Structures are given as structure tokens and as C-alpha cells.
Amino acid sequence: MPFTARIEAAILRSIRAGQSGTPPPKLAAALEHAVMPGGARIRPQICMSVAAACGDDIPTMSEAAAASIELIHCASLVHDDLPCFDDADIRRGKPSVHKAFGEPLAVLTGDSLIIMGFETIARQMELDCARAGQLTLALARSTGMPYGICAGQGWESEPQVDLSAYHRAKTGALFVAASRMGAIAAGHDPEPWTELGARIGEAFQVADDLRDALYDEETLGKPVGQDEIHARPNAVSELGVQGAIRRLKDILGGAIASIPSCKGEAMLAEVVRRTAERLTPVAPNKAPAHPAE
Amino acid sequence: MPFTARIEAAILRSIRAGQSGTPPPKLAAALEHAVMPGGARIRPQICMSVAAACGDDIPTMSEAAAASIELIHCASLVHDDLPCFDDADIRRGKPSVHKAFGEPLAVLTGDSLIIMGFETIARQMELDCARAGQLTLALARSTGMPYGICAGQGWESEPQVDLSAYHRAKTGALFVAASRMGAIAAGHDPEPWTELGARIGEAFQVADDLRDALYDEETLGKPVGQDEIHARPNAVSELGVQGAIRRLKDILGGAIASIPSCKGEAMLAEVVRRTAERLTPVAPNKAPAHPAE
Q1: Which B residues, 51 through 90, put their C-beta within 8 Å of a C-beta on chain A?
Q2: Fewer C-beta within 10 Å: chain B N or C terminus?
Q3: Could you tell me which CATH number the domain at B4-279 has?
Q4: Domain residue limits, chain A
Q5: What's the pLDDT tens digit per position in B262-275?
Q6: Which residues of B touch A79 (CB under 8 A)?
């Protein structure tokens, strides 16, 4: 992926700022454990790709946007893994934060990473205050209440679930943020980029459902069969494996078709194609080409 | 307290925005449970008082700053009450959020309130982008890592505690934020206001230690003796009850002396005096004049 070095450097800058001076050592270590080494960094890749397609005239602004999205995504993984949610012992092939550091530090790690996400954007305000402000609003809308990932997770505590609101918020919101924030970081109108993020998010949800149904725990690097255990809606139980794979390809085709006409259009279509390859499961119980999130 | 109506209205505006549209109903209710009705709102009162002393030329800016501090303060209370921390069943005389709504929604309530705090400030950026940006940075520094309330709480998981770093971060940071953000919201340099916040924070910590040692659970509206149970440092065990009360009065005297020369100086000293009255415990096992936090 073309933006990996810039994304990793931006995330590391934020983590190092949070570890500066004399912080409590275990919480400082837990922050790094939660974020490094990362998964595919799909959301930051989308954000940087859209920024590049829009000219990326303030590189540190798009890097901050991408890093902020990943920090809050990692925060959501740490809190989702807690005993009161998925009670997951492993994440990205190593112990989850609460397994490695205990529950109190896992709660605080998530909280600190959320704050760090907003701080990362705010540090760019001197370069362009209006863009930094818009990025903050876009990030908050896609992560909090009433429509962000917190809201999405909140639907899991309801007896009657609004399924489309659930998926849109839980998985889709941060992909929409990724594409919109890429445009905002480069000074462009985010509206034409919303559909791209929404479709990639939808594809990602179907791919995640397929992985959850097809892979074993060792291959996936996290517990499997969670949707069945928690009776969560799942594309495989609805469409079957082959149906879900067809649906995934359709959605990604639609994502490519939705890319607005711009000078980076071809590059961006290539990024979506690579994301598609990465997302599509190869075969049951065969190792995926890329690490899971 | 003179700013109560403006503070409550500002907090309610933020909560209502988070409940708008079609949010998951229980999480929407949990947000309100965590924030309404409030305690003394001491931090927002300090923020508004400093803003008033500095001219308060953009009233919605100081209101947003005050509300953002209280939202994040409430988030920290919700997460502190979780079973993995204090395991508190009651807060402000009613069930804690995890008791009323369950642990998953309590985790999400804290997360949502943190995000809502940053969103509340970002909504003011159109009025003055630079001030909103500075407020965001001040809020992040006082709440996250390495020096904010998350860091303070993180020290409780360390075998060797840096006591001054612990108190400065856990209790002091949000009071420093309150005084500094009041100045920033009114377009003033926050530096001269740092000491006021730091001293009120120190006083609050001593008062909290006194309440924890002197009151019973029914009077206090939350579990007592927590410092002893969790072997946390406490001013009463260090100085005795009378020694801690003298220390409290000294600190508040110092707080009043630290107020920079300004047109609202007398009003602000009066606010500190009223805060002092509110903080000073009346007598063992006698009801406090004001609700606890």
C-alpha cells in the first residue's frame, strides 16, 4: 500500500507524544501495545488515498486525519475486547490489552486513545484552523452518539435492533469518516466522497462476516464464531458463503464506480482493488494473505 | 452560584444533540443518567467565573468550554465506578451507570461523553476557530496521556506511585483546565490563571479525602472508605482530620491570593469562597449542605 510509511510515522508521533515526560509506565506501554504493530490500517489508507486524489496540499493534515481515525479505531478494539463485550483473549495474534495489562488499564487505554485522536487533529490547527475544526467534527460524528461507532455498539444492548442503523454506525461510520476526512484534509468538499467510504465499509462488514464464519482462531488471530455466540446479524447466515462473496464483489464494484472524477481517480481505484483482494477470503481454513485487524 | 442556568443549558444542549435522530435508546438514556441531574458543577463554575473575569465576549464559547469539561468529568466518574475500578453501586445518590444499565453501556457512555466533550467545543469553531482549537488542546492535555486524568488513574496500577504526578493528573488537571479554558474562551492568555485552577484542585482533593474519611455512605451518596480499601494516598491519614481541615483553608486562601488583577477579581474571589464553603466538611456524620459529586 502506497502510504504505509507516512501512516505509521504519524501514528507513532501521536503515541510518542502521549508517552513523553513521566507518564505512568504501564499505561504508556499499553497504548503502544494497542496500536503497534498495526493491522492493515485500511481506514488510514483510504483517508490518505482520498487526500492524495484531492491534491494533499498539507501533508501533515492528511497524516493527522489518518492517524486520528486509526487511534480511535484501536480504542474501539480495546474496549470491544473487554470481558463485558467480546471477552477476547487475543487480538492481532497477541494478547488483548486487558489480558496483557488488566481491565483497568484496558479501559484507560481506550479512553486515552480517543482523546489522543482529537489531540492529534488539534495540533494541526496552526496550519489550517478551519480544516482542523471540520476534521474534528467529522471524527466526532463518526465515533460518538447518535450515529458513530459508540452508537453502533450501543445497538447490541437493545432487544429490538435497527439493523441498517446498527451496521451503518458500527462499521460504516469510520469508513465514511476516512473518505470524508481525506477530502477535508486536502481542502475539498467531503460530500462527493461519502459514498466511497460507505461502500467500502459495507464491503468490510461482509468480509468480516465471511472471515468470522470461515477461519479458525489461529489463522484469524482473534476468536471466531463470535456473531453466532452473540446472535449478531451476519451476511453469511443470510446469504450463504458464495452469496456473501458475490455480494462483496458487487459492493466493491460499486465503490470503484462511485469515485468522483479527479486527477487521482485511477490510483484510487487501484487502492480499492487492492483492498478488495485483501478483504476477500481465500478459502475456508487457509491462511489469509494479510493480517486480520 | 451565578452561572448555574447557563451551565445546565449548555450541558443539556450537548446531551440533546447526542440523543437526536434515532440513537440506540438505552445508550441515549444512559448518557442523560450519567450527566443529569449534576453535582455542584464546580469545574464549569470555575471556568465560567474566569471567563467572566476576562470579559466573556463570546458567551457560547465559555459555555461550550464549561460543558465540555463537565461531560468529560462525568465520563471519568462513569468509568471510575466500573467493577474493575471502584465497583461503586451508587453515584450522586442514585444507581451508578453500570448498575442501572449494565457494564457494556457504562463503557460506551464514558466513551460517548468524551467524544461529546470535544464535539461541543468544535461546534464553536465558526465563531472563533483559534479559540476553539486552543480549547481542544487544553482539554486533551488535561484529560489524556501523559498528564491528564487518564494518566492520573493509570498511576493507580503502578507498584511505585509518583504521588505528586498522581494528584496533579487525577484531580488537579481538570481544575487547571477549568481556569485556563475560561481564559482561552474569553480570548485571554491562560498562563496567569493556571495557579488558581491548580490550588482549587488541590483543595478539592483534600476535601474529598475528608469526606471519604468522615461521612457515611448514605450522606455522601457514594461508597465511603474507598481510599483505605484501595490503599490510596489520603490527606487525612497523613495530617489527621483537623490538620487536613487547616490545610484546606490554607490552600483556598492561596487560591484567592493567586487571582490575577482584573475587573472581575472580587466576584471571582467570592466564587472561590463559596466553593470553599461547599467543600469544607461540616462535621462527622452530619449531612453536607450540598450534594456530593
Answers
A1: 75, 79, 82, 84-85
A2: N
A3: 1.10.600.10
A4: 4-279
A5: 888 888 888 888 87
A6: 107-108, 111
